[in-house]
């Protein structure tokens, strides 16, 4: 099977796509593209068994309701709440709050941080997939699943901070070293140098690994009371098994 990882940014220049081919207990990185445009992303997803996208798939429901109410001039602050307590559910999705509870990490707010620009782009990609007959289940039940590389790395007991940007290439190299030590079945092939030079490429590889975990059902899924919100806001699939399980297990 082939899993795809997409480190999605607002513009193509900081967007990377990675393809992992899984066979006989091994995974080979067959291709990595940095500077990926929408057409390449859509084609990659269409050809994958599972694709992990590192980007929110939607906005908080309460934020959408807030903007709608504001436009109509009917915003009301809930009784007994003020300041951050009131704004929390506007800034963070249900899944963001679950990620924080389970990992201690807080994803960027899609409604209050610049990552909202990437989600606008993501929305267009999801719409194109639907037009091609591949509608997306934002809860992760279809070919696309939302992933969070930092949380994956932390759960797999790998370095998850301090490797971003050109000033931290040494840390990025150490992350790649640790990843290959923890996953001797992972072959980065001719793209290893690119992964050591580009954190976008490495995040795309981690996203492809997370997509494999999702395909194996070794990730968190929404509880019954979270399913409705996850269907509109998106759901970050957190790994629930060690990294070695990805090669040892077979898809159901």
UniProtKB/TrEMBL annotation:
InterPro entries assigned: DUF429 (IPR007362)
Domain of life: Bacteria
Native organism taxonomy: Bacteria, Bacillati, Actinomycetota, Actinomycetes, Streptosporangiales
A Pfam family matched in the record: DUF429
Organism from which the protein derives: Nonomuraea turkmeniaca
Name recorded for this polypeptide: DUF429 domain-containing protein
């Amino acid at each position: 099977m082939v899993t795809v990882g997409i480190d999605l940014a607002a513009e193509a220049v900081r967007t990377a796509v990675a393809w992992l081919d899984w066979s006989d207990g091994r995974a080979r990185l067959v291709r990595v593209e940095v500077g990926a445009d929408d057409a390449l992303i859509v084609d990659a997803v269409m050809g994958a068994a599972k694709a992990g996208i590192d980007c929110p798939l939607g906005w908080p429901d309460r934020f959408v309701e807030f903007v709608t109410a504001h436009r109509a001039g009917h915003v009301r602050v809930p009784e007994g709440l003020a300041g951050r307590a009131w704004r929390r559910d506007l800034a963070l999705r249900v899944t963001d709050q679950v990620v924080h509870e389970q990992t201690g990490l807080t994803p960027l707010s899609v409604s209050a941080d610049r990552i909202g620009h990437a989600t606008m782009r993501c929305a267009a990609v999801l719409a194109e997939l639907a037009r091609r007959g591949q509608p997306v289940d934002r809860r992760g039940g279809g070919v696309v699943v939302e992933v969070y590389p930092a949380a994956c790395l932390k759960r797999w007991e790998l370095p998850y901070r301090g490797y971003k940007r050109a000033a931290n290439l040494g840390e990025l190299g150490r992350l790649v070293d640790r990843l290959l030590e923890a996953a001797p079945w992972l072959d980065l092939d001719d793209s290893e140098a690119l992964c050591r030079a580009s954190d976008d490429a490495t995040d795309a590889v981690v996203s492809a690994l997370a997509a494999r975990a999702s395909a194996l059902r070794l990730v968190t899924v929404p509880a019954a009371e979270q399913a409705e919100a996850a269907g509109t806001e998106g759901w970050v699939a957190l790994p629930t098994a060690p990294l070695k399980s990805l090669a040892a297990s077979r898809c159901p």
